[in-house]
Amino acid sequence: xxxxxxxxxxxxxxxxxxxxxxxxxxxxxxxxxxxxxxxxxxxxxxxxxxxxxxxxxxxxxxxxxxxxxxxxxxxxxxxxx
Length: 81
Description:
By secondary structure, this protein is mainly β. It has strands spanning 2-6, 16-22, 29-30, 35-40, 45-49, 54-59, 68-69, 73-78.
């Protein structure tokens, strides 16, 4: 089943962020808790962990694109179910 990956809210005031880099390529497996992407806010760059195990099957927003609202889908994992 495809599991959406959302732009996380990394701070109380955060309303948007930018993907600094994807740390996993499409087609690669990732386990829950492993780094998936680096997210840039107005203050810091932080690693975003995968919230589910699976294979990254689609990247919706590429690294370096414009700011993305918190909660927007940035990619999809396939959890194999």
